[in-house]
Amino acid sequence: MENNAQGQSTQQGTQEPNNQQGMTQNQNGQSMPGIDYDKLAQIIEGRTKAAEESAMKGYFKQQGLTQEEVEKAINAFKEEKAKNTPDLATLQSGLTAAQEEAKRAKLEQFATMQAVSLGLDAKTIPYVLKMADFTALDGKELKEEDVKKALNKVLEDIPQLKASNTKATGFQAVGANGGSKNENESEALKKAFGLS
Known about the structure:
Elements: H1 2-29, H2 37-62, H3 67-84, H4 88-117, H5 125-131, H6 144-157, H7 178-192
Helix pairs in contact: 2-3, 4-5, 4-6
């Protein structure tokens, strides 16, 4: 019997560590249960609102207000708080619009520099930029070749916008032809005074 008891205690002794190892393995082997963050946020928000209302009720009762006055004061506080809370959708749309405007300005500046390097006249650059198709460049890094390709496409379609390489040389008349104007005036004066 003693051997039998010893055997049982030995078995129990060896089972306990195995049992503890099994728990450790289960703890290490088990995946954590999924956490529903939306539900957690709702719970926190609910408790925050409840605590806020409780604090306001306590404060207003300390001020000696009746239950009806407390409710009116709480509603007034909530309305004021709602007015002062920024609208996230409006802020987000404003941010998106500002980012788009910044991209457009950066592209326009870069394209203007490329148009100047192509030798375009300063008067025609705004028109060329408006007609150029830069949609292929959206979301991409601005590259000189891509922008010049879009500008050259416009210049191919409307060659009149290209810079004129011919410069006037030699004598150029400036002003009006001197002889004809004076003669016409003289004739008009003679007729007016009856001399002709």
